[in-house]
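ok trying again, last paste got cut off:
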Amino acid sequence: MRKCIGCGEMKGKKELIRVLKTPEDAFLLDATGRKNGRGAYLCKDAACLEKAIRQKGLERSFQAAIPPDVYDSLRKELARLEAE
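nice, full thing came through this time. structure:
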């Protein structure tokens, strides 16, 4: 079980998307859940991403400032995953 940083619900790992901070300080979505780096989990829902942005959930999880272009790329990637 993992906790969504947006809504705070506990769900199975397969029901969530992992947001990853690589050792090179790049942020990306890890659909496989197996890439190397520090991770935080989000529901596969744009509303959870927006809530995590408003409440600074990603910044708290990674203890770092998140650039606005990272949020834009996460929104696009999440929209692509929702369309599948």
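cool. The beta strands are 2-3, 10-11, 16-21, 27-30, 38-43. The mean pLDDT is 88.
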